[in-house]
Amino acid sequence: MRRMHSIGAVALAMISASGLACAGSQADWETITIVDGVYQFRYEGHYNFFFVTSEGVVAFDPLSVEAAAVYAEEIQRLAPGSPLLAIVYSHSHDDHATGAAVLTAALGDAPIIAHANAVAPILEAGDPNLPPPGITFTDRMTLHFGGRTLDLHYLGKSHTDNMLVALLRQDKIAFAVDFVTNGTTPYRDLYAHEFPDFFDTLAAVQELDYETMLFAHDRPGNRQSIDDQIVYYDALRDAVGQALAEGKSEDEAAATVRLPQYESWGRYEEYFPLNVRGMYRWLASQS
Fold this sequence. Notes:
The protein is of the alpha/beta class. The chain has helices spanning 65-78, 94-97, 100-107, 119-125, 197-205, 223-245, 250-256, 268-286, and strands at residues 21-25, 29-35, 38-43, 46-52, 57-60, 84-88, 112-115, 135-137, 140-145, 148-153, 165-168, 173-175, 212-214, 221-222.
């Protein structure tokens, strides 16, 4: 079932910016200008993004109570007096969705939007700092804010069964969280990756009409960043599958499987053996 939601219709002139600019920063956080009116906020190792229109501000992923306090200040600094129009959760995990009440306390009440499958785990967690969404969708939601069109896509299971991918249509800017990286080895033992659906979801990202990709734990990238991820997972699956076919144990696979072409990726030495273990466990469970 598809639910559509539309807010506003006031035009906003947009000025494209070449490259990235740091709008504000301290040691533990920074705000990066992606294009005029579109910003990515980093708090320690987590990124989100927000965009400004003539009607107000839409903010993604408060991250945490502590992060949301700084996030709200940055929104106020860059969009003084602008009301908060909506908060969007990329998914239900608390390291991305916590802190909405801090934003609304500072910027005013606003609806929380997420995929329908995010409601149950959030309610089950019972965290007062992670309120459930009031507006949900199952397939795709399109929203209009001051001349900017935001498409929220559910592409399938990936890092959860409630991960959405956002697309600012006119800006051709996408935002995908946790199940994609930009030149960084995937997290540890592929925690919470929903195989085999994950592979189809990753491929489906490339069906979206975007040019810039914003990540949750990396600096911005582009379509090539996702193509590289697709090739990486194919290579990882093939290499670990070969180790299984040779009768190697998980420990033996972790010790011997290498993909030297990815040694330049961030945290390769730390995470790659764990990636092997995660892939090994999934492949072994299929035999």
